[in-house]
Specification:
Four copies of one chain form a homotetramer. The first copy, chain A, folds into two domains: 2-141, UraD-like (Orthogonal Bundle); 147-258, Transthyretin/hydroxyisourate hydrolase domain (Immunoglobulin-like, Sandwich), CATH 2.60.40. Helix content of chain A is 35%, strand content 24%. Chain A is built from seven helices and 14 strands. Chain A has helices spanning 16-28, 32-40, 55-63, 71-88, 101-112, 116-138, 213-220, and strands spanning 2-4, 7-10, 139-141, 147-149, 152-154, 159-160, 165-171, 178-184, 197-198, 205-212, 232-239, 245-247, 250-253, 256-260. In chain A, strand 7 and strand 8 (178-184) form a beta hairpin. In chain A, helix 4 (71-88) runs parallel beside helix 5. The relative contact order of chain A is 0.12. Chains in contact: A-B, A-C, A-D, B-C, B-D, C-D. At the A-B interface, helix 5, helix 6, strand 10, helix 7 and strand 11 of A face helix 5, helix 6, strand 10, helix 7 and strand 11 of B.
């Protein structure tokens, strides 16, 4: 890792995850009182004035949409926020960089019900999450080691789904999805030329596969209904760690499918 | 069933599926020679002049996008179409109302490899499919009996996913998805007020659920990663029979999900 | 709830789960020091002398098979047990009533790696689990409210799997499985006469469905291979709460299946 | 391929599947009348005298348990068999080597409902299936190319399930399962030393994985219930082609799992 002009750069061997895990260990091994102090040092999530916050906090809180709460939502938020603080003795902490106002309200409502011990750990895990996302933002990763792969299995016929067309898009908030590539699965149901994303293209963010399942089963002759139950199958997923392998497969019949984070 | 001014109307007891099954039985019970004659009576799927077709065929073929093939695709289509006809002795038949040019090319390529006996049945099943879709188009269904339901199970915690927000959209070709409704699952993980669609709203077409899975698991405290692997989960499906129950559930953990046509 | 001659009896309205949740709340709301005292009051899990334990603890620990560890396992257990105690300041607690020696060793190894805060909660959750199992053992439940249901979906054809034969067995340690019943699914893929188990027959324990999937798909004509990939499909599951509904369905094609705790 | 003393031996390059596909092509390309003649040449499946059959047919039919039908089953079988013959003009053909009487009755009942064209193809596919199984029986395969692999994914935590114990058994009719091996998954959730079966050990037949899922999640700390819903998870599957790769994975959370024929 190098620091040049105040900017962090990870060399080709280090992983941002390793750095984060080291930071996390320091916190986890600290005594209870120091952890509590850390939690109490966090600013309130708020729906009004942001001036007093650090610039990172300002950016994050603006994104969360908390500034656009309706009156009813604002009242609910303020009430629960107050209850939270008096129950647990520290402010409600949430990694809001990718959260909407709905996520914030749902998380606050859910966590307000926690026992004190459980919530203490939940709050700490949010602190770690915020650290993770600020690290990702602050560090320029020269050569991310992560990559994205796919595999399509035809569970109606017990074979790899070969010759299935699929698209990959990158999603941006408030914008049209960005088309990245079209693929055609090979005989083993995999992408023909290795990972769909790797190296500099493997950017943390939200992506979408679109599988042309209807066309595939039309070719196999598996359909008899008019409008197929499954035609274009979208799978939307987040890539969160630039150094990990994400395998996002599809298991599909004309009437069912599943997906999962594989390896 | 009533015929008024040349328009068919199904009364509240009949089902369009029953009518179709009766028509299908007549064909299925016909001798081989009559079936072959039926197949041979179909027009060629074509990428040029449509004037000679019946108006139903014209509409259907226009939709398929066969008129917008690239030169390479056109050549491939014409070649395979010719091979098909000499191998099987009847024209390539495909229910193209909901098909794209990709579906047509994929189906033609796949079916060209069939044995003669198998393809004879495949072609007949397309005839039935065309009949089905024309029936749906021709008949005014007073009171469709079909309905759409949902159920969300949290497979990480082994419980119904309660309080999960979801949206329902209707999809239209070349247009923005039409927002229909927002729901919040009840304690049993189901829609709180019965079916999402029923009666006059249960229109044959393509729909999309969007499940706010990220918010749900934020409330449960199941997340530790920054950007969740699963946040908004879309499920896109076709409703093909106005008189059937479509149950389209979601089984979901923070790292995997599946769906299926249920009952 | 009645106590007669020292035996607890739950009347038809109470649920053992409600009683347990009340007991749990008392513990959860206690201050940190009292919880720690509770953890420290637990006996060591041990592989030698049991005389000093309460009779409940003796029975539980005998069942776990810790008395039949090999020399190598015993050494590993004793070492890890010592490390655990010095790291966390309380003995390793595990609800061993249904555990084998493998479970004990696996759990000890895994939990030894926990942070102190996390393990404190994990140990408390084992205390609650032990309480739960002792309650189940101590209380005579007049009329359990739980029941067991099933549903079979054919994901290759998108329909309920009707007319599928299935068996239900109860499993007993070291004994042959006890055959309970044979069922044939109805048109909706469900059991024809309501729950497979309910009332007095709904006994906490381990059960097994056996689905005759090969016969079902032979009837549907979906098979072409010689020996089917899936023929008899066993699903083995534990019923833990006498007052809950356990829905244990099967989603199956000739080449894949899934199951889950449903509702 | 060599024929020595009337025994067939496949050399290290040939695959029994290739030989079978060639035989199948000869039949598939024959004219309709010759196919019909082939179907009509098959003996009746029968529940009485077997003397008149070829020795292969005798062995196969004895195994099917048709000789042990109850009176009611025998009557049902004879009636349906007669209806079948008069509807289709050829005897009911079923590959019975691995079938029970339940499979036979289910298949007969299901196929009796087929249209004539469809059943003609179904009967031919049974002829191919019988050929396949007789080939497997007749040919000594020097060096099978098939192998069996496994992979376990933890869908609750989004990671490979490492350090999960599993057993492999071979199942024999009317006998205790034969224990073959115990494995411990590696960091990637796979078997540590390559395929579980390969070469001479890869024998066509029925097998069972047993995954110790309860122990795994006890180590991860995912359980809170007393008796786990999933503890030992059995997966039973048939290996039918000695030259193919069978990948039989497990995707599992504490409350759900799925498996499939992978690649």
């Amino acid at each position: 890792m190098n620091i040049v002009d105040g900017n962090l750069t990870l060399d080709s061997v280090s992983k941002v995850g390793d750095l984060w895990r080291e930071m996390k260990t320091v916190v986890d091994n600290a005594p209870y009182e120091r952890k509590l102090k850390l939690l109490r040092a966090h600013p309130d999530l708020c729906c009004e004035k942001l001036e007093s916050l650090s610039s990172s906090s300002q950016v994050e809180q603006t994104r969360s949409g908390l500034q656009s709460l309706t009156d009813g939502e604002k009242e609910r938020f303020v009430t629960m926020n107050g209850q939270y603080k008096s129950k647990f003795g520290f402010p409600f902490i949430l990694a809001v960089r990718h959260a909407t106002k709905y996520t914030v309200l749902a998380a606050l409502e859910g966590r307000l019900k926690n026992e004190v011990d459980v919530e203490f750990l939940a709050a700490l895990s949010q602190v770690h999450k915020i650290a993770w996302m600020r690290l990702l933002h602050a560090i320029h990763i020269e050569n991310p080691k992560g990559f994205l792969t796919c595999h399509v299995l035809d569970t109606a016929n017990g074979v790899p789904a070969s010759n299935m067309r699929l698209h990959l898009h990158r999603l941006h908030p408030q914008e049209q999805p960005e088309f990245l590539a079209e693929f055609q699965t090979n005989d083993d149901g995999r992408l023909p030329n290795g990972p769909a994303l790797k190296g500099q293209d493997f950017i943390v963010g939200t992506y979408r596969w679109t599988f042309f399942v209807g066309d595939y089963f039309a070719q196999k002759g598996n359909y008899t209904s008019g409008l197929p139950f499954l035609d274009q199958v979208p799978i939307q997923f987040g890539l969160d760690d630039p150094d990990q392998h994400y395998h996002v497969p599809l298991l599909v019949s004309p009437w069912s499918y599943s997906t999962y984070r594989g390896s």
